[in-house]
Amino acid sequence: MTTFNGILLQDMYNLIGIECTLFNDYSMALLLLILVGFLLIMGGMVLTGKYLVNKYMFSDMLEFVWTVVPAFFLFSLGIPSLYLMYYMEGGNSCDLTVKVIGHQWYWSYEMHEFGGEVSIDSYMVQLNDLPVGGYRTLEVDNSLILPMLTSIRMLVTSSDVLHSWALPSMGMKVDACPGRLNFMNLMSMRPGVVYGQCSEICGVNHSFMPINVEFINWSNFLVSY
Ligand SMILES: [Cu+2]
């Protein structure tokens, strides 16, 4: 069901996602401030017929202000944006490593940890087999089950063409390139199911290779495979 929650960004599962949402809110507020301020000044001048141009014909102060104020706005956007970019790179330490492989047109996951060899193929559930309450083209037969509150290193690659492993509610997206390992750090702050889709046009069934990650606690995770 479509709800009002769908108008804005999704509820985030990790700190990076929360930071992205805050940055989006801040930039939109700044944009609105500039737009409304500009419209009020221009509208006021046009409606009243009183133009400020004559008063400020040779004003050094005005030139100073219209240079410094926009520069301040730009820096206030650029600095948090740079901070976020480096934050997304993640740290070097992790507790679990998962390999994600993109195929035409499904995802497969591999985990070689805790003495176990986990290898999963994750295909989309066809429309006829969709469970009640399931999301169309978003449910998969085998979802990736991961522990929450754990730093997980995702190694992303592809076996054929370019794909992209994306989780909008974690603010993360990594390209899957054949012959190359890209990585990202995931850490979910709460349990739940995170949905995503391939985000690189990869062929006719590009729209039908959803990503489904389930975050649960450690004790359940250890017995889930
Ligand atoms: Cu793809």
UniProtKB/TrEMBL annotation:
Residues making up the signal peptide according to the UniProt record: none
Membrane topology (UniProt): Multi-pass membrane protein
Any GO MF annotation of the entry: copper ion binding
PROSITE patterns assigned: COX2 (PS00078), COX2_CUA (PS50857), COX2_TM (PS50999)
Single GO biological process annotation from the record: ATP synthesis coupled electron transport
Cofactor binding note from Swiss-Prot or TrEMBL: Binds a copper A center.
Cofactor list: Cu cation
Domain Cytochrome oxidase subunit II copper A binding per the UniProt entry, residue ranges: 93-225
Transmembrane segments: 29-52, 64-86
Keyword line: Copper, Electron transport, Magnesium, Membrane, Metal-binding, Mitochondrion, Mitochondrion inner membrane, Respiratory chain, Translocase, Transmembrane, Transmembrane helix, Transport
Any Pfam family hit: COX2_TM
Family annotation (SUPFAM superfamilies): Cupredoxins (SSF49503), Cytochrome c oxidase subunit II-like, transmembrane region (SSF81464)
Predominant localisation class: mitochondrion
Superkingdom per UniProt: Eukaryota
Location relative to the cell: Mitochondrion inner membrane
Protein family according to the UniProt entry: Belongs to the cytochrome c oxidase subunit 2 family.
Function: Component of the cytochrome c oxidase, the last enzyme in the mitochondrial electron transport chain which drives oxidative phosphorylation. The respiratory chain contains 3 multisubunit complexes succinate dehydrogenase (complex II, CII), ubiquinol-cytochrome c oxidoreductase (cytochrome b-c1 complex, complex III, CIII) and cytochrome c oxidase (complex IV, CIV), that cooperate to transfer electrons derived from NADH and succinate to molecular oxygen, creating an electrochemical gradient over the inner membrane that drives transmembrane transport and the ATP synthase.
Name recorded for this polypeptide: Cytochrome c oxidase subunit 2
